[in-house]
Amino acid sequence: MKPLRFAFADLWADRVHFLCAAALIAAMTAPLLLLLAVKSGVVGTLLGELRQSPEIRLITVPGDHQFSPADIDEIRAWPQTGFVAPQSAAIITGRIALKAEGRRGAFVTGRVAPTGPGDPLTDARAPLPADAIILSAGFAQRLGVSVGDRVSLDLERFEPHPAVIAPAFRVAAILPARAAGGLFALMDPLSIDAMEAFGTGYAVPRWGVAAGRDPVERVLSYEKLRLYAADIDAVGALEARFEARFNLNAESQLSRIEAVRRLERNLDAAFAFVTGAGALGLFAALMALFWAGVERKKPDLSLLALMGARPVALAQVPMVQALIVALGGFALGLAGYALGAALVNDWFSGSLNGAVAILPASPALWMLAGVLATAMLAAGAAAYAAMRIDPALIIRES
């Protein structure tokens, strides 16, 4: 225990010297912690915004094509697929005309798309009922309806049997403005397909339309589809797989995702370079400091050796001091980081949807481990020198 008591006593006696060493560690760790926090905050906020926006995961296929039900089932089974729904749009061109049931006035025209379980816009777990519709906030406002109200759908055809019908739908939900802008509606794919069948002259028994071609003769195919990747990391893979499978050009916001990922990689590289350079400088400075400390205390250490302290016990002196200095320096660095982070977050408040500087616990603990490892390695040379001190040194010098 004498070498350990000596280590603490020496720290107190030479506290100015060791406080300078702790300040050196703090001067390196504080800016690194702040850089790490800014990287995590900026990249985390940008990635968070991308993940929260369903449209970032949308894969669009320009033009009209022919997709069979089997094609839709195949796409749905891909692990990269988050949601897919077929849409017949050759006749209705993706637009519908609605008005509140029982009210006078003109029909309001808006866009329509199929929905289903797992739709990123609704997060629904069950299929939408056949007599239900989901409206955007803008569409609902124009129609003057709310959840539970009913709207009429205006459908007209001229051949082979002219007919005009207005099937009613219940407003099941209203999408928030951030989820869907403009005049937009979601319907069950079968309802959209029924509109297509009616427009192409087929009978639609579900809406009481008996005149027309037999629905059994109709060959199901879909000109469009709504396709979303499972997450932002699957967008590129889903786009590539779809293009390779169907030999069609697909479009996505992959470039926007890659821009954020590229920023993350560049910041990681910058952080690694600065951390490596700082660690080397800190290692050299601490090694010189602890080595010089052992050289100054050779007479005292040799006296301890003469009193029976083993070489391993003498080696504990610089190692214990390095541990204490490293912990104290990291604590000072954390205090410096907290001050810097408060200033940075205040300066850039409003620039991002969230704090600019956010320090994750796991990387901070890894940095603490790195500081401790650097300090202990730097004290290793001093510990080796302490182990080789000759107990007779104090006698010769006396």
What does this structure look like?
- The chain has 2 domains: 190 residues, no CATH class; 197 residues, no CATH class.
- It is built from 11 helices and 11 strands.
- Helix 1 crosses helix 9, helix 2 packs across helix 9 and helix 9 packs antiparallel against helix 10.
- The protein is elongated.
- The two termini are 25 Å apart.
- The relative contact order is 0.18.
- The model has no long low-confidence stretch (mean pLDDT 81).
Features:
six-stranded mixed barrel; 11 strands
**Whole-number mean pLDDT:** 81
Shape type = elongated
Q: Taking strands numbered 1, 2, ... along the chain, how are they ordered across the largest sheet?
A: 3-4-10-5-9-6
| Secondary-structure content class | alpha+beta
The major sheet is characterized as: 6 strands, mixed, barrel
Count of separate structural domains = 2
Annotation, overall tally of beta strands: 11
